[in-house]
Amino acid sequence: MNAALVQKYLPQIQAARVGDIPVTVGFDGFVDEIIHLVATRSDHEHFERVPDLTAFGNRILAAAGKSANIEMVPVQIKLGGNGPIMANALGANKVALTYVGALGASSVHPVFAELADRAQVFSIIEPGHTDALEFEDGKLMMGKYAHLKDLDWALIEKTMGGDCFFELITQSKLVAMVNWTMCHGLSDIWRHLLERFAAAPPAERAIFFFDLADPEKRTTEDIREALELIRRFETYHDVILGLNEKEAEEIAEVIGCAIPDGDDHQRVGRLTVLLQRALGVGTVVVHPRAFAAAASEGEESAAIVEGPFTPNPKISTGAGDHFNAGFCIGKLIGLPNEGALLTGVATSGYYVRTAQSPSLSELAERMTRIVDGREY
C-alpha cells in the first residue's frame, strides 16, 4: 500500500461520517466452521497443519484406489456467507443496516446474533453450512445449501411482503445483492425488482453492488442471463460488479472476451476495462489477492491499488467480502475508484490481520502506520 496514496485520501477518510446512511444487504447466510487439517499429530494438543492446497491435493491423490483418514480440527464457528460477512463489515461503520436472507426460519441462528444486534433483520430461510478448510495459500469451501434454491421472490412475498421489500430497496443509498451462484432464485428476485423500477422509476440513483460468487457452478446460459439482468439495473442505479481474479476470467470466457497479455497488473487492469465495456455496467472491480483494479464507464484505463498483503493471515475466509464492503464505503463517502480501492484493500488487510471488521476511524488510524513508514 503506497504511502503517497494513503496521504492523498486519508484526510477525506478521517473526516467521513457514514452513520445513519440506509444500506440493505442480502440474501445468503451460512454457519461457517473454520477448519485446519492435521498433517501429523505429536500429542493431544499439538499438531502440524496440512500447509497448503498442493499438499492436501497430494494426500487425496495418494488415496486413490485405497482410502485415507484426515483429521479435521475446528478452529472457529462464525457467521458465513458473502452477505452476512459483507453486512457485518458495513455495520462496523454504524450505517442504518438492513439484512434480508438466510439467517434462520423460525428464529435467527445464534451465530448471527451480532449482526441481528446491529441491523434490522428479515430472516426468511434456514442458513446453509460451510466447512471452510483453510490453508496458507487459500481455502476450500465445502458447502451444504441445497435448500437455498427456495430463496426467491415468492418466499419474499410470503415472509415479509414484496411491497415491504421494495420499500427497503428504494430507501437505501447502497444495496448489495450477493452470492447469486448459491441462491438460485436471485435472478427471479432481480426480475421482479426491475419490473417495479420500470413501473415506478426511482427519484435518486443509489449504489447497487452485485457479487456473483464463483459462477463456474452455474451454466453459461444462467450466467449470461444474470449479467443481462445486472446490466438492466444500470438504467436506474449506479451498478458495481465485484469479481475476484478467477471470477473475472470466468466471466470473460462466458462473454467471449479474450484475456489480455501482460504482467499481473497489466493483465488484470486491461481485463477490468474490457469487462466494464462489454457488460455495460457502471463499474467493474477485480480484486486478486495482492492488489485490486476498478474501471468505470468512459475510463480508458483501470485504477490499480496495491494491498497490504500478508502471507500469514490470521483469517482468510471473508477477505473478499471485506474488500467489497470497504470499496462500497469508499464510494458512499464520495471517493473516486482509486480512493475506494484504497479503502477496500485497507479494510481487507485489517480484517485478515485481526479477524475484526474495522470502522472508518479504525481504518484511518491503521493507515497512518503506512504514512509513518511502519508495517500495516
Explain the overall architecture.
The protein is an alpha/beta fold and 376 residues long. It has one domain: Ribokinase (UDP-N-acetylmuramoyl-L-alanine:D-glutamate ligase, 3-Layer(aba) Sandwich). 41% of the residues lie in helices and 23% in strands. It has 13 helices and 14 strands. The chain has helices at 3-15, 53-62, 82-91, 113-118, 153-159, 162-171, 186-199, 220-233, 245-255, 264-279, 319-332, 337-354, 360-371, and strands at residues 22-27, 30-41, 47-49, 72-80, 96-101, 119-123, 128-135, 138-144, 174-178, 207-211, 238-244, 283-287, 291-296, 303-306. The strands form two sheets. The protein has a nine-stranded mixed sheet, with helices on both faces. The termini are close together. The model has no long low-confidence stretch (mean pLDDT 96).
Features:
five-stranded mixed β-sheet; 376 residues; 23% strand; 14 strands; nine-stranded mixed β-sheet; alpha/beta; 41% helix; UDP-N-acetylmuramoyl-L-alanine:D-glutamate ligase; globular
